[in-house]
Amino acid sequence: MGVRLPPFQALLDEHGNDVYRFLVASLGREEADDSFQETFISALRAYPRLRDASNLRSWLFTIAHRKAIDAHRARARRAVLVEQVPEQADSGGLGLNGEPELWRAVRGLPAKQRAAVLHRYVNDLAYVDIGRVMGCSEDAARRSVHEGLKKLRTVWAT
Amino acid sequence: MGDMNELEQALRSASLPPGDAGAAAAAGKLVARAEDEGLLEVAYGSVESPFGDLLAAVTPRGLLRLSYDPRRNDAVLEQIAAKVSPRVLEAPERLDPVRRQLEEYFEGQRQKFELKLDWRLTRGFFQKILRETARVRFGELATYKQMAEAAGSPRAVRAAGNALGSNPIPIVVPCHRIVRTGGKLGGYGGQLGPYIGGPEVKQRLLELEGALDADGRPRL
After folding, report:
1. Are B79 and B105 contained in the same domain?
2. Closest CB from A7, A41, A156 relative to B7
3. Computed from CA positions of residues B2, B6, B9, B11, in that sequence, does the dihedral angle turn out positive or negative?
4. Over the stretch B177-213, which tens digit does the pLDDT of each residue have?
5. B107 and B147 both lie in a single domain
6. Structural domain for B140, as ranges
7. Does B172 share its domain with B101?
8. The whole model's pTM is what?
9. I need a surface site. Which of A158, B44, B89, B155 has the fewest CB within 10 A?
10. CA angle, residues A71, A142, A109, in degrees to nearest 5
11. Of the residues B66, B130, B169, B175, which is catalytic?
């Protein structure tokens, strides 16, 4: 039985803003733009072959998650080359409303915890979906969120 | 535990500044990139007409769809996604040639559309009838019966009517030029026969083309 896929534009309309917000929180504004393109071009390329249309939101976040990891790695490589952390690494999440200190702290979390915290609270994904997006178990996802929060609290509670 | 909740709240309330255009701008760049990579399989947008905005969709093969009823836009796009390709993106600038030619037509400056057509939304006998219909020229009229004959099935007059009623590319595939045999008035759609955009629209298109006499009867 074939899957009934909505027109791709409907995904963009429905989830584009949220994916963009996740990428801004994760990478900062400058890099969010490129990663957004990469995310949706990859999604568009794979879309017709998709066999399960029941959770398109977490499918998109799975792709965005990987693109964010790619961007973080590319940044780390650049940082090694110039032997200093580039300026914009500090702007992670600062394109978002709210607490700049908090977003700076989120940016400073280990990759897994950072991603898990963003998926849980910014993207509002259920633990089972976070596991799916990150390629780990639901329990591991819950643990990463918990550890991330614990670390953030030490900064936040001051 | 109190600050944990506060922390969670602060994380949850993450939002882009109001009116932030970042996502829209990023999405806008997507169309060009998709096209470069051969991933823009259906582009759609709206085009103006004297009868309100039409939804138009094109593919690399040509014009795929024109639709009169804006309330059906979602359904039309879903059908396209299912039957042609789900790689459907809003890209109004890709409709420029269609927009320009329709504008010229409605202003009485154009009698023939020079647009490639993508016939994938219709098949079999219906497509045969519609391809015959595409040959009826500006200002000329034909009957449902003639269309059935031209398609090689002279008795399939009703089926010819159904084919015209399913026309995915009205105006450009001029199903409005197909009218009832004889001068009988009354019945659905009146003397001119039914039309996908409503009988009034059919009448106005035929008036524009000078295909009706002074009494509003088709010059058959």
Report:
1. yes
2. A156
3. negative
4. 999 876 543 344 567 888 999 989 999 999 999 998 8
5. no
6. 124-208
7. no
8. 0.89
9. A158
10. 40
11. B175
